[in-house]
Design brief:
Layout (H helix, E strand, L loop, with lengths): L9 E9 L5 H18 L1 E10 L11 H14 L4 E6 L5 H11 L2 E4 H12 L3 H15 L3 H8 L18 H38 L3 E6 L5 H9 L16 E4 L9 E4 L9 H6 L1 H9 L2 E7 L5 H14 L7 E6 L7 H14 L4 E2 L5 H16 L3 E8 L6 H7 L1 E7 L3 E8 L1 H14 L1
Parallel strand pairs: 1-2, 1-3, 3-4, 5-7, 5-8, 8-9, 9-10
Antiparallel strand pairs: 6-7, 11-13, 12-13
Helix pairs in contact: 1-4, 4-5, 5-7
Length: 435
């Protein structure tokens, strides 16, 4: 009989400095997010060390006393092996090295944690290349500190094979990193050109009706994507479960046909380098005709989610795209009375929003109708005549237009249709040639 083997827990501690400009709610939200990131990466955070300071200690991020407290806990009190100290800010290479030396424990700052999650979750060639560029860019300035930790034997080599005499390991590694980044950037440019061609063909074939789901990571975008499209996309209660853009058709199919795409989730304090690296995964938002901004209604800090998403969309130039606010996970807000109260408050504050649960089919159906109504605003009605000799073209009508009425006489069939002006004109020309 086979038994499930449980993975051995990987323990970590978290550490954060609260600056005077950061209030308690923001500070706790950021720490909570770090713990969720740690969970995604497979860590169990058993203790959090907090220090209020007017600024970060330039030597080791935390003050000397707090560093000693962590060292004592890690080596004497924890009762288990602590694999890493997770720091809730991006810290300098020297700060990380000193903190590591003083506590005897590996240090991962917030950026490194996110990079590792991206590295583990990337699936497509483009996402893998972007992750590698971000990781190499993060590593480059830290090589000198890594060489110091390695000791004198790792710092210097004699000049061989075209390198300058006495070129150090660090200089050589930096050069390798620069070359690899340049190589990856060329690959990304080629992949981007290929994606644009595929997107143009898709839009030419399907029209320009496209929706992009955007929002905070773990807000339920993948669940909503699956509900709207009937597709099997990954749904996981983890931050950054989705890195690669997924494109599916709204189901059941509508007129016009609507393409729905999921995008990488946003997070507070996402390093700018990562936003730049993942710009291509957000390009679907730029190309979309409508953005569905998904927000977790059950999160007390949802306003922070709104701010983060607004900032990133502005940064990539997608703030001009029409947007519909979707407050998801209303079913996670207490009992029925509390849900009704929460919904009323949200509608009062955001009059045009949708409050729903992606797990309730009737609410998904209402959202689907709202999406279709948005795209049908530009549709026009027209009457087309199809002679009996060209009845093989009937499927073109039903595939591209909404048939409002059909009648026939001895010469052929008359259709009253609703569709995009360009599509109707194309059909008219096709029918004329066939007739």
């Amino acid at each position: 009989m086979q038994t499930d083997v449980k993975e051995k827990p990987i323990y970590a501690v978290a550490a954060a400095v609260q600056l005077p400009s950061v209030n308690d709610i923001e500070f706790e939200a950021s720490l909570s997010e770090l713990r969720e990131l740690a969970k995604t990466l497979g860590f169990t955070v058993i203790r959090t060390f907090i220090q209020k300071r007017s600024g970060f200690d330039t030597t080791g991020y935390l003050g000397v006393g707090k560093r000693q407290e962590i060292e004592h806990f890690v080596n004497n009190e924890a009762g288990c092996e602590i694999e890493a100290i997770l720091v809730d800010h991006e810290i300098s290479p020297s700060q990380a090295r000193n903190l590591e030396k003083e506590t005897g424990c590996s240090v991962m700052d917030r950026t490194m944690v996110i990079l590792e999650i991206f590295h583990n979750n990337a699936r497509s060639r483009a996402a893998k290349a972007q992750v590698e560029i971000a990781r190499l860019g993060y590593m480059a300035p830290r090589l000198r500190e890594m060489a110091k930790l390695a000791g004198p034997q790792g710092r210097q080599r004699s000049g061989v094979g075209g390198r300058g005499a006495g070129e150090s390991h660090t200089e050589l590694d930096r050069r390798k990193i620069r070359d690899r980044i340049a190589e990856l950037q060329l690959e990304i440019v080629a992949m981007e050109a290929e994606r644009k061609t595929q997107r143009a063909r898709r839009q030419e074939r399907q029209g320009l009706a496209s929706v992009a789901l955007v929002g905070y990571t773990n807000a339920g975008k993948s669940t909503l994507m699956r509900a709207l499209t009937g597709s099997e996309v990954l749904v996981a209660n983890k931050l950054f479960a989705t890195l690669d853009t997924t494109v599916r058709t709204l189901h059941p199919e509508s007129v016009p046909r609507v393409l729905v795409s999921d995008t990488v989730g946003f997070i507070k304090n996402l390093p700018h380098g990562l936003v730049a690296s993942f710009k291509s995964t957000l390009d679907e938002a730029l190309d979309a005709s409508l953005l569905l901004h998904v927000i977790d209604a059950s999160d007390p800090g949802f306003e922070r989610q709104l701010e983060v998403t607004d900032e990133v969309l502005k940064e990539i130039g997608a703030d001009v795209v029409p947007r519909l606010c979707i407050f998801n996970k209303i079913d996670h807000v207490g009992d029925a009375a509390e849900q009704a109260e929460c919904e009323a408050a949200l509608r009062a504050q955001y009059p045009d929003c949708v409050v729903m649960s992606a797990r309730r089919p009737e609410e998904v159906a209402k959202l689907r109708q709202k999406i279709i109504a948005f795209f049908q605003q530009g549709l026009v009605e027209s009457e087309l005549f199809l002679p009996w000799s060209a009845q093989q073209l009937r499927r073109e009508i039903y595939a591209n237009c909404e048939v409002l009425e059909e009648r026939a006489d001895e010469d052929g069939a008359f259709f009253r249709l609703r569709g995009e002006p360009g599509v109707l004109e194309g059909l008219r020309e096709q029918f004329a040639k066939a007739g």
